[in-house]
Specification:
heterodimer, A: 222 residues, alpha/beta, Rossmann fold, nine-stranded mixed β-sheet, two-stranded antiparallel sheet, 6 helices, 11 strands, 25% helix, B: 81 residues, alpha+beta, Mth169, Chain: A, three-stranded antiparallel β-sheet, 3 strands, elongated
Chain lengths: 222, 81
């Protein structure tokens, strides 16, 4: 199984994600640079958190138009599984692989803390090792995590069971519509989420609730 | 030609920065201030003298990069360089 982590100038969670992927797959992932026009065929691509291109213009907008993203979008359309975490989620919405947009937090502050999440849909390719409705703890660290989409899109996400993760009642850190923390595409293979599973993937980090995002997708793809 | 592009949040989209500015204006004693909205202004010089062609190119730029049309409107103003 071939996995890759896309590294943009300003990415800062790429190496943490690589550690998680290596633990789950047994081999180091490809670290692909934003300017690369070619990407070897991958089964799994992760867009990590950070501040790609300094968050210029809008978070994720410059990264969405970088050369490597043409390859990522092409491979996603051919069936590769894609996970966008935090800034990676913003990139996925900006490049059109996922609907909606991540706006500035309602409270205008950068929020960095653990959040309680509900696994709303455990049928995506990344959430299969969680039980439906399971409550898990994964930290967020963002200034623009306020998920917004028009009413028709939100209804579609609900109707098609594409809301993968929600903040537990009363624990929405950013004002996101419907308490959305993560969504998927129609196939469940492309997932974007604001919380950072790689920051809670071993006991030395305080917990392992994020680990199953990585072991789960490896099990699905194997 | 020179172009000035105003990018603003669509009606109904929450603008917490605009709200904070509105509150700050209020606390400075400016009364009767309402509906403060913050946006962006982007200036572009184009090597194109035909206004229609310039507008078409700029519209394409807005759709592809400069604005996120899920939440933003854009307004293009052209002037002779």
């Amino acid at each position: 199984m071939q996995a890759a982590v896309i590294v943009f100038p300003g990415s800062n969670c790429d190496r943490d994600v690589a550690v998680c992927l290596e633990a789950a797959t047994g081999q180091a992932p490809i670290m692909a640079w934003h300017g690369d026009a070619n990407l070897p065929k991958c089964d799994l691509i992760v867009l990590p958190g950070g501040f790609s291109y300094g968050d210029y213009l809008r978070c994720g907008s410059m990264a969405a138009n970088s050369p490597i993203m043409r390859e990522v979008v092409a491979q996603a359309h051919k069936g590769a599984a894609v996970l966008g975490i935090c800034n990676g989620f913003q990139v996925l919405t900006e490049c059109g692989l996922l609907p909606g947009v991540l706006m500035q937090n309602k409270g205008l502050n950068f929020v960095c803390r653990n959040t309680q999440l509900n696994v709303t849909n455990n049928k995506t390719a990344f959430t299969s090792l969680y039980s439906a409705g399971e409550e898990i703890t994964i930290p967020v660290a963002h200034n623009e995590g306020n998920y917004f989409a028009d009413d028709d899109t939100l209804k579609q996400l609900q109707d098609e069971d594409r809301i993968a993760l929600t903040y537990a009642k009363g624990d929405n850190p950013n004002g996101a519509c419907l308490d959305i923390a993560g969504i998927s595409d129609a196939s469940g293979r492309i997932v974007g989420m604001m919380p950072h599973p790689e920051r809670r993937a071993e006991m030395t980090l305080g917990g392992e609730d994020g680990k199953r995002m990585f072991t789960g997708i490896v099990e699905v793809l194997s | 030609m020179k172009a000035t592009i105003h990018i603003t949040l669509k009606n109904g989209v929450l603008d917490p920065q605009g709200k904070a500015i509105e509150n700050a204006l209020g606390s400075l004693g400016f009364g009767g201030v309402d509906d403060v909205r913050q946006g962006k202004l982007i200036e572009v010089s184009l090597d194109e003298s035909d206004a229609d062609k310039a507008r078409a190119t700029l519209t394409d730029m807005c759709e592809k990069l400069l604005a996120n049309t899920v939440i933003e409107n854009y307004d293009i103003h052209l002037s002779e360089a």
